[in-house]
Specification:
This protein is of the alpha+beta class and 92 residues long. The protein has a single domain, classed as GIY-YIG endonuclease (3-Layer(aba) Sandwich).
Amino acid sequence: MTWFLYLLECKNGSIYTGIAVDVAARYGAHAKGKGARYTRSHPPRRLLAIVEYPDRSTASKAEYAMKRLSAAEKRSFCLQRAGLWSVSLSVS
């Protein structure tokens, strides 16, 4: 089963990193305050990046590595990948 690593920019400017099988559904849960504890108090503004992985194990390892990066490094990663994918999920 395909898993995805995703990065969200929160309304306060912070970046949340997670994994999911269905990123659109997971984003919706975060936006409704039903997602992770962090995004309940820091609602998402927009989706910054999605990266596909072949299985949960690989996605989890990538999530762990991504969470060790600074916010600036995560933003740089997202900018480098910007031309490689497109998603139209955002919250006003």
